[in-house]
Structure formats: C-alpha cells, structure tokens
Specification:
Elements: H1 2-27, E1 47-51, H2 56-72, E2 75-82, H3 89-103, E3 108-112, H4 122-141, E4 145-147, H5 152-165, H6 169-172, E5 178-179, E6 182-183, H7 191-195, H8 216-232, H9 236-265, E7 266-268, E8 274-277, H10 278-282, H11 286-300, H12 309-320, E9 328-330, E10 334-339, E11 342-347
Parallel strand pairs: 1-2, 1-4, 2-3, 4-6
Antiparallel strand pairs: 5-6, 7-8, 8-11, 9-10, 10-11
C-alpha cells in the first residue's frame, strides 16, 4: 500500500514543481522573485485546483495534492462538478466537497452544471460542460493549474477509441500530460496503482456509468483490453501509451505547419463569413491540408469527438476531387461547401 501512495505523491510533486517553475518564469520582471513573493515580501503562492468526482482516481490525486502542496510551495484547492444526470448527484457532489475540505484543501467549490441537449453523445456533452465549469472556477479563484486524475489505463482506452473512430493520428496521440491549465500527473501510472493510493479512511464513489457496457469506453476497458492482454501478452496499455507519446510529437510538428498554412489560406467570403482559398489548400501536402480542414471545421462549431476521418475526406474532395458536388454535412449542424474558389463552413440553423 505504501509504495503506490509514494508513487502517486512523487508524480504529483514533480508536476507541482513544473507548475512552480513555469510560474516563476512567467513572473520574471513583474516585481516578484522565484519564491512567488512580491517586493513587500507578501506570499503569492500559485493556486492549484484538483478536479474530483469522488471516484478513486481523483480522490487519490486530491489526497496526494493535499500532502505535497505546502512542500512544493503552492496552495491547493478542489472542485467537484455535479452534472445533474443521476439521482442524488447534488448530495454526492457536496459530500465530495466535504472530503476535500477534510483533506485540507482551500478553496473548495461544488459546481452544479446543466448538460444541454444537442449534437454529440451524452458523454461528450457532459465533458464539455464539466471542462467549462472547471475553467470558470480556475478563473474565479485565479488558479494556475487544474489537476485531472487520468491514468495510463485511461490513455490506452483513449488510443483504442481513437483508432476505432478512424479520425487520424491526433486521436491516436491520446491525452497530453499538459494542455493549457490542465495537468495530468498520473498519466504514467496504472489505474490499479492509483486506486491503491486512496486513503484508507475515505470511501470512493464508483460511477455506475463506469461499468455500463452501453458506453464504448467501458466495452474497451472490460472486453477489448483484456483480450489484447491475453492474446498479445501483458503491457499492452503501456505500449499504447508509448505509441501515443510518439504520435503526439509527430502531430505537434504537423499541427504547427498546419497553423501557418491555415493562416495563409484564410480569407473572407461574401457576407463576412470566414473562408479558405482553395488554390492555397490544394498545394498543401495531404497531412497538412487535412489538419487545416479539421481545425477549420472545429472552429466552425463541429464537436471534435464527433468529427471523423470520413468527414475530413469528404471535405477534402471539395478541394482535390471537385466536380461541382454538393456540400458536406458535418456534426454540429455545419455544412462545408465550395463556392467561387473558396471553401466555407456555414451553420445550418
């Protein structure tokens, strides 16, 4: 029991040191030294929040953050988000908040969100509502970072789901350890190791959705990965996570090229709608052009998790296989179409 807890604490400690170091670099020249104290010697330690559902992974993360925060020179708080999708969820979120207070975290906030109806599955809509709530909480409290409890097993599941969607290398790259304010310090630890680090006096809540085979992620967890382990040998999750790391480095380089290419192709259609010059797009390599098209579609309102390689291929045919065909309907009630040498994305409502 002690070793998993130490592993989790070590992972959190290392991430907090990165946060402090990055914050010190950002503060250079604003009158504060690397300790985070201003010229009057007043403490202004960075605030780090942990997102906690009450499940074992996020509880282990919250406990480790509480243990390591003062040692790393940060303040630690927590956020519990109630999606309102299950009976008793509001009471459960408040109970999680009380556990976080018991860990010594401050501030602690419980946020109740409404998951809107609309495009995409319920998981995706709940995820977007949750992240919006976390970002609002971080802004309200002036937090430097929000810690998320994703594990190596979550990463492996994400890679396999991306493979099944056929939506390209970026999907296979999985989750990054750091994306904006979000940090995932447990991404290199197995789910079993993290769960073994939950304090013995705390009872985690198991989300029934995590065992419901109606969800693709649960089927991957309960059926697909065990078969891969049995047929190909142990270590499949770690191998998938390593593959994600390699693909992410490649994808980052291509995304950088695509960003420059997109800026060069961007123009304005009649009525002021954003559009892209087909002549510029057709001269790009396929790898870069598809990234430009994906980014343009997402900016137009397509949910990223619902946008597949088949959608991007259909848009690409408006550029490379143009025969006067109709536009392409995309998730999020968006239509891509070609008019007058321009590719544009229009809302259907």
């Amino acid at each position: 029991m002690a070793e998993p807890r130490l592993d989790v604490r070590r992972a959190v400690r290392n991430e907090l040191h990165r946060i402090v170091r990055d914050g010190a670099q950002d503060r250079e020249g604003d009158g504060r030294d690397e300790s985070g104290r201003d010229e009057d010697g007043l403490a202004s330690m960075p605030l780090v929040l942990v997102a906690c559902s009450g499940g074992p992974d996020s509880l282990a993360l919250a406990a480790a953050l509480a243990h390591q925060a003062s040692r790393a020179g940060v303040r630690a708080g927590g956020v519990s988000v109630d999606h309102g999708l299950q009976e008793g969820s509001a009471d459960r979120a408040r109970a999680v908040g009380a556990v976080l207070v018991g860990f010594g975290l401050e501030p602690v906030e419980t946020i109740h969100v409404r998951v809107p109806a609309g495009v995409g599955g319920p998981e995706g809509r709940a995820r977007r509502a949750r992240y919006a709530a976390l970002e609002s909480a971080a802004a309200r409290h002036g937090a430097s970072a929000v810690l998320l409890g994703h594990t190596l097993d979550d990463q492996a599941e994400t890679v396999l789901l991306g493979l099944a969607r056929g939506s390209g290398p970026r999907s296979l790259a999985g989750m990054a350890e750091r994306t904006g304010i979000y940090h995932r310090p447990l991404l290199r630890l197995t789910r079993d190791a993290v769960r073994a680090a939950v304090p013995g006096d705390v009872k985690p809540w198991e989300d029934p959705h995590n065992t419901d085979s109606a969800y693709a992620r649960v089927r991957v967890r309960k059926r697909v990965l065990p078969v891969l382990e049995e047929e190909l040998g142990p270590g499949i999750s770690a191998a998938l996570a390593r593959t994600a790391d390699l693909l992410r480095a490649d994808a980052d380089a291509l995304d950088s090229s695509a960003g420059s290419a997109r800026a060069a192709a961007a123009t304005t259609a009649a009525g002021g709608a954003p559009a892209y010059d087909v002549g510029t797009l057709v001269g790009l390599s396929k790898a870069v052009r598809w990234r430009v098209l994906r980014a343009a579609a997402i900016d137009a309102g397509c949910p990223p998790t619902d946008l597949t390689a088949a959608h991007i291929e259909a848009i690409d045919m408006l550029i490379t296989g143009w025969r006067g065909q109709k536009g392409v309907d995309l998730p999020g009630a968006i239509r891509a179409r070609r008019r007058g040498g321009l590719l544009r994305f229009d809302a259907l409502n």
